Amino acid sequence: MSEPTLPRRRLPRWRLLASPLTRRILLVNLLAPIVLVVGVFYLDRYKQGLIRAELDGLGTQAEMVAGAIGEGAVFEEEAGFFEINPDMAQQMVRRLSEPAKFRARLFGSVGELAADSRVVGGAKGSIYIEELPPPTPPHWSDRLARQWDRWSRWMPRDDSLPLYREHPNARADDFEEVMTAMAGRAAWAVRSRKNGSLMLSVAVPVQRYKQVVGALLITADGANIARSLFQVRIAILEAFAVSLALTIGVSLYMAGTIARPIRRLALAAERVRHGQGRVHAIPDLSRRKDEIGELSLALKEMTEALWRRMDAIEAFAADVAHEIKNPLTSLRSAVETAARIEDPEKRARLMAIVLDDVGRLDRLISDISDASRVDAEMSRAETGPVTLSAMLDTMAEIYSGIAEDRGLRFQVERPTGDSLVVQGIESRLVQVLRNLIANAVSFSPEGGRIVLAARRDGGRIVLTVEDQGPGIPEGKLESVFERFYSERPEGEKFGTHSGLGLSISRQIVEAHGGTIRAENRGQGGARFTVGLPASS
User: What average pLDDT score do residues 303-328 get?
Assistant: First the structure.
């Protein structure tokens, strides 16, 4: 009985980004980095925008305060020459800076410090005013902000910003932006304090009738900026918490849709490997429509093919035992009978039977060995281009000489200019053609004609071997390819053929991805047709 075969199923080739599993894995792995990168870029740009807006606000306020001082705290010392009144300027900078919560310092025309909004007292002593936090208990966000401030001290700082230094007796040349303002142009600067916070400063000239009489420096810490940045960080953390929850949820989903089915397939394959019966089938996950579904189908088909192969091996072993038992029984009977017969002629006939049975066993064992090696050899050997047109010419020439005494004629029909190339193992394809030609020779009558034909049919090469013999009995068109099937012509000595030739031919053709079939010709005789994929 021949081994049943299933049609080959082509697996879909998922493109890299079209694969469902690839899209899921990319979604999970890229979600958190995308959120992080977007948050980092957004935060940096947001910080720069806050600094720019804070400097613009300070610049506007500085212009207003400088204008007020130029109108109310400047007196004309000589004709056309103006000076700042320190007492009036001190009162003005204190009053004007209180609502805006910034520090204002006024420098005179020679660079001396004329007024400071943080200074209270006379010339003999100075008291610096520092704003205290409210007495009410801080909100949880304020406590978190203070904790963040403590943590941020251990973080890397921006070393590109100059360090802010507090000068007890500050002068105009201690601040570059003040010197620019003394020259009649507004300027600003951003510095870093020792605790990592920012210090923003804006300097504008103080003028009276286009004469620069001093420079006003307004400074403010980055508390508002830090507060806004902290709020943004809280928002980013909230978004991160949401994305983390989504990532965990999607990861659990992935574990359920990928890891668990793969685990089921692995356990099923392990049970099959240990031979725990056929009741433990590979689970069918083909409804998933992804790579795991294809994997389950492939494992299922592989397991079924393994079981079919085991059944075929078992049946093959039974057939071999049966076929070998027949000549062995005949041998035993002949040997036992020869021991009791004294007639030399009868004993010679029995010895001839023994020799025939030995020859039959030898041919049978050789064919069985060849049949058992086909699959292993086909899996190991490397294929190459095989020119079928040249093979037909060579085989026709060889068998024409062998069958010359019977008057058999060989006719080769093939297209000219087409070499009819297939991809395969040349020695095995030659074996197929030899089996078919030998079968045609054995059934052809004296003076008969054997036709070897080849043609191209789309993407396949079709070979046919026709004879003018009695043909194949009805209902036996498939049976002729079964192992040990023997339907021999009249007059042929019994045991000349093992019945494995056509079975081996089908094994070889199907291993090449081809087909082989038998049919009867309308004018009498048999026709065997082999179809093989054409080489690209």
Answer: 76
